[in-house]
Design a protein that fits this description.
Helix content is about 30%, strand content about 15%. By secondary structure, the protein is of the alpha+beta class. The chain folds into two domains: about 10-160 and about 330-455, FAD/NAD(P)-binding domain; about 165-325, Elongation Factor Tu (Ef-tu), domain 3.
Length: about 450
């Protein structure tokens, strides 16, 4: 059945490439799937598995009236292998969808490598095939050779920013007499360990953090670095002002240590922490904990010295230190259609952080659309553009239509979705209406395209 259908090449075994290869194969189209590891390594990856989660084990808020949660739900309804596998291997994380990252990646590697229509090659493919249908999903750490090839193909320079990952700590090394288990406003499972700081402790910590020595950014020009505002190093936040961290990842609001009574009671106001460092569970057993919002470029020795100033972490044992690496992305508004096809070569598609979407779930979403459209091209079907009233459609419309001059990576958010016909004042209610409209429009879109495909085939 598949002998008359041309194969599709997918380059890159991250979240986007894995999703793309799966969708192509599930559509009955053969795939040549290339991942450069372990032949070539990257500055950020630690394993050889597909879809390795580099920065965090969290896919973001899971409630469907939140932007990331709506994206999860859209992908569930589209049979995303990434979200289905995340649901299989989730760990407690309050209101977030977080996974045991090791099991998650191993399972996806097993699924893809055992698929009868996937030919899996563990070797770099540092050129864009001249012919055939290809999906580029090489991520923010595209190899130098392929980056040069892309630069020649697009005829333009890349834009780069620097991304950083948070340290991970052994659970047994955390002082549980100081840290308390709670989620903000008691929402969802009490899945975060919270390290409270008084004002004196916070100010000492900030002073040490701002003065700590940073690692050299090897092979990169520091003056050309552009920080993505959604993933700033913690030391950069500290330098921006005395209270910047307290209004960001160290905000104390809504976090209550039940052992000390209810902080909301008037007589207990003095017990409120001045700042709180949150730790999120990394694995199902609760043996590993991620320092939420503590992506950093400090030298490893400095990280240990400064982060051990945080109450409850005086004897912290680090299994992974924070790292910083360059992310590369295309100026997509000048290059890509909302179908994720290159305008100048429609048989070449791109997905993931390479196209300027931000976050794990957005990468999977891009892989889904690029893979689906690649399979449709192989079957001589028209490619799909998603409704911009869906979160997926809004993201891809943004990266296609944004201003090329000031284009920066975009995470899922309700600000990019078209306004409602009637204004809803309550933010929570408004987001709920966005969700309902999105899922209804997605269902109609699915039904319409299934009907069209059946007629063509």
């Amino acid at each position: 059945m598949t002998s008359s259908i041309p194969l599709v090449t997918v380059i890159g075994g991250g979240l986007a490439g894995t999703e793309a290869a799966w969708q192509i194969a599930q559509a009955g189209v053969p795939v040549d799937f290339y991942e450069m590891r372990p032949v070539e390594k990257s500055p950020a990856h630690h394993t050889e598995e597909l879809a390795e989660l580099v920065c965090s084990n969290s896919f973001g808020a899971q409630s469907s009236d939140r932007a990331s949660g709506l994206l999860h739900e859209e992908l569930r309804r589209l049979s995303s292998v990434i979200i289905a596998t995340a649901d299989e291997h989730r760990v407690p994380a309050g209101g977030a969808l977080a996974v045991d990252r090791a099991i998650f990646s191993k399972d996806l590697t097993r699924k893809l490598s055992s698929h009868p229509l996937v030919s899996f090659y563990r070797q770099p493919l540092n050129r864009i095939p001249n012919e055939g249908i290809t999906v580029l999903a090489t991520g923010p750490l595209t190899s130098a050779d392929l980056a040069k090839e892309l630069q020649q193909f697009t005829g333009m320079e890349y834009m780069s920013f620097f991304d950083a990952a948070s340290p991970i700590i052994v659970g047994e090394s955390i002082d549980r007499d100081v840290a308390f288990l709670a989620s903000r406003y008691d929402k969802g499972e009490a899945a975060y360990l919270n390290c409270p700081m008084n004002k004196e402790q916070y100010l000492r910590f900030r002073e040490a953090l701002c003065a700590a020595e940073q690692a050299e950014l090897k092979d990169f020009e520091q003056e050309s670095a552009k920080f993505f505002e959604g993933c700033l190093p913690i030391e950069e936040l500290g330098r921006r002002g005395e209270d910047t961290m307290r209004y960001g990842p160290l905000k104390p609001v809504g976090l209550f240590d039940a052992r000390l009574g209810d902080f909301r009671a008037p007589e207990n106001k003095s017990k409120k922490p001045y700042a709180v460092v949150q730790l999120r569970q990394e694995d199902k057993q609760g043996q590993l904990w991620n320092m939420v919002g503590f992506q950093t470029n400090l030298r490893w020795g400095e990280q240990k010295r400064v982060f051990r100033m945080i109450p409850a972490l005086e004897n912290a044992e680090f299994v992974r230190m924070g790292v910083m690496h360059r992310n590369t992305f295309l100026n997509s508004p000048e290059l890509l259609d909302a179908t994720l096809q290159f305008t100048k070569r429609p048989t070449l598609l791109a997905a993931g952080q390479l196209i300027g979407t931000e976050g794990y779930t957005a990468a999977a979403a891009g892989g889904w659309l690029a893979g689906t459209n690649a399979a449709r091209l192989a079957k001589s079907l028209s490619t799909l553009t998603m409704p911009n009233t869906t979160m997926m459609g809004a993201l891809f419309d943004f990266i296609h239509s944004a201003s090329p001059k000031h284009f920066q990576p975009m995470p899922p958010n309700f600000g990019i979705i078209p306004a409602l016909a009637e204004r809803v004042r309550s933010k929570k209610e408004r987001y709920g209406v966005y969700r309902d409209r999105s899922l209804a429009d997605l269902a109609s879109w699915q039904l319409e395209n299934q009907s069209l495909e059946a007629v063509v085939l």
